[in-house]
Each structure stands twice: as C-alpha cells, then as structure tokens.
User: Fold this.
Amino acid sequence: MSEPIRITKAPTLKKKPKDSELGFGIIFTDHMFVANFQEEKGWYDPRVEPYAPIPLDPAAAVLHYAQAVFDGLKAFRGVDGKLRLFRPQKHVERLNNSARRMCIPPLDPELALQSIVTVVQTDGEWVPRMLGTSLYIRPTIIASEAFLGVRPARSYVYFVILSPVGAYYPEGMAPVKIRVEERYVRAVEGGLGGAKTGANYAASLMAGEEAKHQGFTQVLWLDGVHRRYIDEVGTMNIMVKIGDEVITPPLTGTVLPGVTRDSVLTLLRDWGLRASERQVGIDEVMAAHRAGTLTEVWGTGTAAVISPVGELAYKGETMVINGGKIGPLTQRLYDAIVGIQYGQAPDPHGWTLEV
Ligand code: COI
Assistant:
C-alpha cells in the first residue's frame, strides 16, 4: 500500500471536554483513519475521514467468529508543548504479531506508523494538556467479509480511533484490591493469550464482574494448567518484588508482550536492579508475604502505566502489600515512565516519537 493517505476533514468539529473531567475511552475525536483489504488488492485506500460508524454486513466474520485484533498506545502533550507518541513502532510490531496469530494479513509497518502519526496530527488539538491525561490511540483490524463458513476472511477493515483519556481506574494511580482467580482462566499455552484480540477480553469479563461484586478492582489470573503460576492482573502484566528481585512471568504465549512491561524491565536493568522473567507460583508469593519479603506488587499496561496492588486475596487469606500503600520502586517506575512520556526527562532509549 504505497498510496498516499487521503484526508477528508469533518465539516463541523465536536466540543472538546475539560481535561479535569476525562475518564477512559468514553469520548472520541473528530477523525479516524481507515484502510481496506481485499485478497486481490492487498491493503488499499488509506484515508483519514470524519469519525463515523463503520458499515458492516451482518454476516461479517468479525461479528460471528471474532476475527479481530487491536492495540493501544498513547500520545502525550509534553511540558514543552510538543506531542509525543510512546514507542509506536513497538505497538505496530505487536499489532502485526497479533494479526498473524489471528490469520489477519499484517499491515506494512511503515504505513501503520504513518496512519497513527497522520490521524494524531489531524486531531492534535485533542491531545489534553493536564499531566496524567493523554490521547489514547486504538488501532484495530476486523474481518469484514460476509461469509458464515469458518476460515480466515478475505476482506478486512483497519481503523484507528482516538480518545482523550484521564486515569484508567477511577481510583487513579492508587493501590487496588485484587482477588486471585481460582475458577476461571484467561489463557493457556498455545492459545490466544499472547495476542491482543477481543476474545481474551471477552473471556475475562465474568471473573472481573464477580470480583467487582465482591469489592475487588480486578483479578489475578493463574496459569490454566496448574492453577498455580501467576499470569496477568486484570488486563495488565504483573510484577512482584520479593527481596531484591523483581519477577514477572515469561512470554510463553499466555501473557501479552506488554510495551510497558518491556519498558519497566529495561529501566530496572538500567538501574542495576535484578529483574527476572520467570514463572512464580502463588504459593511462592504467599510464602514471601508470610516471611515479610514480598515488598511490592504492581501491574503494568499502557492504559494505567503502573498500577500498584495494595491487597491480594487468595483462599480466604488477604495479603496486604506495603501496608496497602504505593511502594517506593512502584512510584519510581511510574515517575520515570511518565517523565519520559511528557518530555520532562531524557529519553535515552529513543522511546518517544515527536509528531
Ligand atoms: C492496557 O493498556 O493496559 C490494557 O490492556 C487496557 C485496555 C484493553 C483498555
């Protein structure tokens, strides 16, 4: 798809919300990026157009068999007024990896990056100003072929929509209460867990709802085979600090290769700290808690960046972590990543892209 991106501006612009009133993923901007795929043409007609519903045949494969992938990244308005994307190339790479897993034709990475840059530039005024806010970018590919047989579709729509956001959890960057999930599983090796595809999120809903009814923010997923090793927390990667070691589960196909996960591991190693990607059992976490060596637990993800875990409930036992307060390393990591995102701190790894 080497066609230039066509731009059609919206005739009227929407009223923008106040930065202080932003939630997560509720409001959408004036424009979106769209491109189409047909087997005989490849990806074609890249364009920015007014934000609007997408026409879909009721037989479209995505509506029946969930053949779809998405990603999520953010644009920030820096303290210097410049707009920056955080690790967009890494998100494009992940979108294409998710696509391959779902038998969706990958995008030309250059065009995918250009699609994001162009739509963010078009709606640049929508990037909020207040620290802690950003423009959430949602690239998505859906199978659009009207066909009810089960096989990969022959036509797709790629779109990128934008949403000005505040904190992901209404609590903001505050310790959350998590219930260790014993009944449901999110993913198994060989399954879809490593792909960012809607089916994983659909699979997580019931456990999340039950946890909420019981007063928890989310669940901690255990592996689907032994129901023992920790996997992810809600929609985020999980990290635990036991003694001087920070541990996060390895990328064996069940957990999403988080961009924030990768950034945090890089920072920890830059700082000379011990960061291990290895399996860790919930029994090991509990033993460490009893021994007083489980000092911090946090989730990492694009939406919330770092989410401290204040309490973990498992088999009738409640582990209160760091007195239910944000731990020092959790805070340092949050500050370091946010500092780079808002252009307040140097970016030695070249993670940001000015747009
Ligand atoms: C994240 O960015 O942490 C997520 O995966 C949440 C998103 C699905 C809303």
